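Let's do one together. I've listed all components of the complex below, 622 residues spread over two lines.
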Amino acid sequence: MKPWYARNAAKAALFALALGAAPLALPNEYYINILILGAINALIALGLNLLLGYAGQISLGHAAFFGLSAYATAYATARMGLPIPVGMGLGVSLSALVAWLIGMPTLRLRGHYLAMATLGFGIIVHIVMNETVEITGGPSGFVGIPRLALFGYAFDSDRAYYYLTAAVLALAALFSLNLIDSRLGRALRAIHTSERAAQTAGVDIAGYKLFVFVLSAAFAGVAGVLYAHFLSFVAPSSFGFHFSVQLVVIVVLGGMASVWGAMAGAFFLTALPEALRGFEEVDILIYGAILVACVMYMPMGMAGAASGAWRRIGRWRRGRAGQGEGGHAG
Amino acid sequence: MFAAAAQYLVSGLTVGATYGLTGLGFTMIFNTTGIINFAQGEFVMLGGMMSVFLRMWFGLDLFSAIALAVLATALVGAAMERLTIRPIQGGSPINLVIVTIGVSILIRGAAMLLWGKDTFSLPPFGKTAPMAFLGAAVQPQSLWALAITLALLSALKLFFTTSIHGKAMLACACNRKAASLMGISVARMSLFSFALSAFTGAVGGAILAPITMTSYDVGMMLGLKGFAACILGGLGNPFGAAVGGLLIGIMESFGAGYVSSAYKDAFAFVVLLLLLFVRPSGLFGKAGAERV
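Okay, and this is what the predicted structure of the assembly comes out as:
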């Protein structure tokens, strides 16, 4: 067994404990609701972080994968009457399949062209969701998606649903940590640093890019089915360009190429609009200003700022210790 | 049949003119700074909305209102560069892009607070009686839009080829380090490019406002179409972006006319994706232009 398996398992276990303890500190169901949505966004951010933070490939259309799986499970369970696990499986598979199909031609593009292509794909999917009214219910949304029940247990309370999403998130974090430490993770970072050098070293660039693209779409797909069976209502407005952009902002603000940063960014940006509710009309202005200020003053994201602060504290403590010893010697 | 096609062509060109001007704005900023400015669409919105409100608030005549609105938008562009881009110049490209997204949220939010969520319209610039062209009814405003776009394009072409500032901006586009070694202030060119592309975008917004309505939130879609226009033309090529914008306008208009108006916005993106699969650097882009 590789040594990092145990280390990553320990980290993920601690994270799971923290997630499990979080509701105890919160007074009511409203906060649990925000936590659930935060965990769902964190799940997408984990996948997008593998693509953007590690492999260095941008996607401005990730909301589409989130939405496709949400609608797929909604249609399968509410209209076709299939069991919920089947619907969820179908949803995640659909996201992964579409990512595979769209990824093959798209991932050959680079930089801003890739941004444009994924953005265009996201917009097309969003428009289709709005216009295919017989399937999706159109702009007014899809109602009557059953609340989740698995193996005879109905996740009726928000608290139960939170523990489910938290468990999924902790597993996804463990998976991501292990993936990054594996041979594949090294290949992704090599692609990010220099595609040419990676290719020279024998890394199958196209294959790895496509794999991580499909994987990140599958993460978004898992988030999508959890979202659909939580709210029991989905509408296209949740899956538009705005949300795709927000996902990229989450990853960048959290700190590129950091599993913890991506998740911290997700919880922060999910909670921020709620915290700004009190400012009524100017909330959007404050939101924009905070966004700009965060990126300007934390260029390495929240993860970068945290590790910078940690280093400074360490240096300060060493400095004090050094002074103390000096005092003794004198 | 033929008349309908002519009608679609004219309306496509009219809207395409604004897309082209938006795309041109993207290209100017990209060339001097390497940034994709996601607030570009908000400049277009400001051009239209400020014209509307300068008329309403101060009773200005149409042309002075538009001129003031366009200049004010150029100032907004310059302020944006000074306050948010200059302090972090040299930062990673994705951070700069996120900052422009944040600024676009700010501008859109401010516009909503100031002017509300209603839609507004400007009166046409000249006569209102439609003219006949190959069996199609052409609004004189369409001709105004095209004429102003052409005039602006020629002025910019002249600016880039003859004036010292224009040449300095082109030099930045070729190689920023070499340009700064030759004594060009890259920082000032960056400021200049933001002001100039805000100006161009605002003109696009003002000429479009009498044809389609305008409101605080039109910027996002216009910005995306403008981005699509400059990718279609090949990123970095200003006149490619203008042509790309006209093509997107035409595709949309024909798609809406012959296929389905519900999928109007999707049409241009489908064609763009297919094109990128065949030509990964756009119509007029150089292959391998990507900086390593």
